[in-house]
Amino acid sequence: MKKLSARRRHPLAALVVLLLALACTGGLYAVFAPADKAQADETAQSLAIEEGKKLYAVGCASCHGTGGQGTTDGPSLVGVGAAAVDFQVGTGRMPAQQPGAQVPRKKVIYSQAEIDQLAAYVASLGAGPAVPSEEKYGPEGADIAKGGELFRTNCAQCHNFTGKGGALTHGKYAPTLEDVDPKHIYQAMQTGPQNMPSFPDTTLSEQNKKDIIAYLNAVNGEETESPGGLSLGGLGPVTEGLFGWIFGLGACIAVAVWVAARTAKAKKS
């Protein structure tokens, strides 16, 4: 007992006890903390799905069915994924205002938190593309020249060379890509909304999508100026050639008429 008492009075005894306590605390945290975090994440996801289900019942079920199975007024949402919901609702296209050849972009009526909840519920109906992280559509590491080449090959036929948009058949159209959130451009390529084909990673890789978005930011940025002067809407050589023919040839005809009139007047005098 005397030896134990002497050890307790040793100057390093308190330090040893403190180190042991810290070691035990750290060990217990390492064992239990991951499980608690996973459980918390699972609980938060369940709550988001429940809230999303309520929002869906009010704003979406009348067209897409109570379980997302689809109706004559709206397609099935099973397997479309969270990215499709974030795009359609985040751009105001859904809920649709009225039926038509194409649903236009309009004012967003849901908050981002509500959109996330709707996306969580629809994603729970079936696996589909997830909402991309900012790293996937951000400008870091993007090749603008490659993006321009990919855009002209895959997108310019409908959206024109600089993403100004264009008309399609039967009242449909390719919308302008100016002032569109890069996340929504990425999601559109992922999911293929309305008349647009989808471009999964097997067709256009994540890097390809990043490059295309960087190209659109470059040609439609606020500080971007056309090196040739008037851009003519960026519609390409056909429109520019037509402009040249109409105004250039028209000017030549006007000059020719003026010269002929002057010549005739001079002969009479």
Summarize the structure in words:
- By secondary structure, the chain is mainly alpha-helical.
- The protein folds into 2 domains: 40-130, Cytochrome Bc1 Complex, Chain D, domain 2 (Orthogonal Bundle); 132-248, Cytochrome c-like domain (Cytochrome Bc1 Complex, Chain D, domain 2, Orthogonal Bundle).
- The protein is built from 11 helices and 2 strands; from the N terminus they run ααααααααββααα.
- Strands 1-2 form a two-stranded antiparallel ribbon.
- The protein is elongated and about 125 Å long.
- The chain starts with a helix and ends with a helix.
Task: Classify the fold: give the CATH topology of the largest domain.
Answer: Cytochrome Bc1 Complex, Chain D, domain 2
CATH top level of the largest domain is Mainly Alpha
Overall geometry comes to: elongated
Q: Can you write the helix and strand succession as a string? A: HHHHHHHHEEHHH
Query: Runs with pLDDT <50, length 5+?
Result: none
Number of domains: 2
Helix-residue proportion: 55-70%
Tell me what portion of residues adopts beta-strand conformation. Answer: under 5%
Q: Find the CATH superfamily of the largest domain.
A: Cytochrome c-like domain
Q: In angstroms, what separates the terminal alpha carbons?
A: 141 Å
CATH architectural name of the largest domain: Orthogonal Bundle
Number of strands: 2
Instruction: Sketch the major β-sheet.
Output: 2 strands, antiparallel
Catalytic activity: a quinol + 2 Fe(III)-[cytochrome c](out) = a quinone + 2 Fe(II)-[cytochrome c](out) + 2 H(+)(out)
Domain Cytochrome c: 47-126, 142-220
Main location: membrane
Enzyme class: translocase
